Amino acid sequence: MPKLKKLLKKAVAMTPLPFPDQTPAKNPLTEPIQLVHEYIRAWDAKDAEAIGRLFVEDADFINVVGLWWTGRHSIVKAQQFGFQHAFANATISISKVTQRFLGDDAAVVAAQWQISGQVDPDRQPVDPRRGVISATLVKLADGTWLGVSCQNTDIAMAADTFVSREGRLTATSYIKGPSPEEVATAELVDD
Fold it and tell me: In what residue span(s) does the DUF4440 domain sit (predicted)?
């Protein structure tokens, strides 16, 4: 409990950096939803610096396995590492994008993505992955937008949660569907 009290005192004492008056992005975001499109453009170009410029200086970015990067510098370094080791020849595509305003100067955007061309640590090709990215943005004094927080999540197919056993997460579903035998023998219905 004393350790928690110390952490809480530190959290309360933290002063966030002020938002900049204007965006550092090369292509200023005039609408929040543009963050997704600019992120994809920068990701496909393997331009970690451009990704970093989409966010405020002290932004938070949580990746698909829960690693929490704080600050533009950390976001850029992590993206660079991924481009060098896992995603050098990978491509990303978007299938759905949403935008929700939270007043005049804040918004949330979300998008479903698919990555193809990733390699494992031994540089062997792996199957495509699907996921969802969500970001909270703030409107700056110049009328443009920057991300303040971002969460990236893999989609675990045919699952609604994870269970943990011996330190390993396994995608699991509590929703019962047809058995593999029932699916194999089912008749296709054409509407």
Answer: 34-145
**DSSP-derived secondary structure for 53-119:** TTEEEEEEEE-TT--EEESHHHHHHHHHHHHHHT-TT-EEEEEEEEEEESSSSEEEEEEEEEEES-B
Question: Dihedral (C-alpha) 60, 69, 7, 4: value to the nearest 10 degrees?
Answer: 110
Per-residue pLDDT at 23 exceeds 70? no
111-163 pLDDT tens trace: 999 999 999 999 999 999 999 999 999 999 999 999 999 999 999 887 888 88
Q: Which CATH architecture has domain 21-157?
A: Roll (3.10)
CA nearest to 137, candidates 47, 36, 65:
36
> Domain-by-domain residue ranges, the chain?
21-157
- 44: enclosing H helix or E strand: helix 34-44
